[in-house]
TrEMBL record:
It comes from the Bacteria. InterPro entries: RepA_C. Pfam families: RepA_C (PF04796). This is Pirin.
Length: 317
């Protein structure tokens, strides 16, 4: 089950340790060794939370034209994200495109994790957010901080809708990620440069209720290791939701995988090549995952979730 890549390097790390495992694999697999070693060595056992809808759909990986909406179809669910306008003091309302890339995903994971941990729509920012991003290897300064602030504005401005095909799940008539807050200083003359303008952000009530009813726990160490790989991060989150709900081996065919993960790919063979590259880090970060690449697509096998029930109970207490 992907023995030639992620599962293989995991076994090497367990048997020989990181340094010797790195010496035993070709250069292109050394990064997989590092991912597996970091996740296996995680003692903090911190968890992250995301909403089920984001396990089956995702944001774009690259920037779209500011006026463009984003529609993404997953397994029995479709996500629609539309750009929005925000007004700054003394300025006309400005259109901000939809959020995209790894930085947007990490901000959303923080907001969802904190809201789930405190069971409150109000999420504290400031130091708590910077500490979390720091654990993810993201600096609040420099170009990384600039990218984080840009994505935060896009998240605050956009609107979203989830359309579910399951009769037990209601679609959203309207929705946002956040109701207020999530504004950042950008001016060099402002002594608060790099600091958050608001001390808290209030999540949209519909979004918060949906997340609270359908949370998916994730391993924080895995999020950190995949934080700069948006495609692998999406696959990890997808597997974290799908694998432990299966009752038996399930094949997801290449056409369906391209519909969910292959926006922008016109050639199936190109998507298959890149999908394999993105899947390997995701599986390396999820030691319990049982995944097998086949000619038809991906064979998913029932697997333990990445976060144990014991850790979930401890996080909620």
């Amino acid at each position: 089950m992907q023995e030639d890549a992620a599962h293989g390097v995991r076994k090497l790390v367990l048997l020989h340790g990181r340094d010797q495992a790195r010496a035993m694999v070709p250069p292109e697999r050394k990064a997989l060794v590092d991912i597996a070693a970091e996740v296996l060595a995680d003692d903090a056992s911190r968890i992250g939370i995301t909403y089920t809808g984001f396990c089956l759909t995702s944001l774009p990986h690259k920037r779209l034209p500011d006026e463009a909406a984003w529609e993404k179809r997953g397994h029995r669910v479709t996500l629609l994200v539309e750009p929005g306008r925000l007004k700054a003091a003394g300025r006309a309302p400005r259109l901000h495109g939809v959020p995209y890339g790894a930085r947007a995903r990490m901000i959303l994971l923080y907001l969802q994790t904190q809201a789930a941990r405190t069971n409150s729509r109000e999420v504290e920012l400031g130091r708590s957010m910077r500490d979390w991003l720091g654990r993810m290897g993201l600096s609040w300064g420099g170009e990384t901080g600039k990218a984080l602030r840009e994505q935060a504005v896009r998240i605050a401005a956009c609107s979203l809708k989830f359309f579910w095909e399951d009769e037990d799940m209601e679609g959203w008539a309207a929705g946002r990620f956040v109701r207020s807050g999530l504004r950042f200083a950008e001016r060099g003359n402002d002594s608060r440069q790099g600091e958050l303008w608001d001390e808290r952000v209030v999540l949209d009530e519909v979004f918060f209720d949906a997340m609270r009813q359908h949370p998916v726990p994730l391993q924080e160490a895995a999020l950190r290791e995949l934080g700069n790989r948006s495609a692998s991060l999406d696959l990890y989150i997808w597997l974290a939701y799908r694998l432990h709900t299966l009752r038996g081996p399930t094949t997801v065919r290449w056409a369906a995988l391209r519909d969910q993960f292959g926006a922008g790919y016109s050639e199936l063979h190109t998507f298959r090549r890149d999908f394999r590259k993105s899947l390997a880090p995701a599986v390396a970060a999820y030691p319990e995952a049982k995944v097998e690449l086949t000619d038809d697509g991906v064979m998913l096998h029932p697997s333990r979730p990445p976060v144990s029930v014991r850790l979930i109970s401890a996080a909620r207490s």
